[in-house]
Design a protein that fits this description.
The chain contains 1 helix and 6 strands. With 84 residues, the protein is mostly beta strands. The protein has one domain. The protein has a 3-stranded antiparallel beta sheet. The longest helix is centred in the last third of the chain and has 7 residues. The protein is globular, with a radius of gyration of 13 Å.
Length: 84
């Protein structure tokens, strides 16, 4: 399964094996607020993708948890970075 994510240097596609449950977590990466996608698998180590600023809205259907967004639909993480 491929998910389009925004990282500091632009949009890119990351892949998770099919059947992986993907959750969104917030935190800091390199001192900056960011999202981390965690691909949870029962039989193997989790897949960790840190440093994400946003997930393409049409790809959120693949996530078990929601990307936090402002009322206008902007990722809360991206809105926080832009406001600084």
């Amino acid at each position: 399964m491929e998910i389009c994510v925004r990282q500091p240097d632009g949009w890119e596609t990351i892949s998770f094996p099919s059947g992986t449950d993907i959750e969104v977590a917030g935190g800091k990466t390199n001192g900056q607020l960011a999202l981390t996608l965690i691909g949870k698998r029962d039989d193997r180590p989790h897949i960790i993708e840190p440093g994400i600023l946003d997930v393409k809205v049409s790809d959120e259907q693949f996530l078990e948890t929601e990307v936090p967004r402002t009322p206008d639909g902007t990722s809360s993480v991206l809105a926080e970075l832009v406001s600084k």
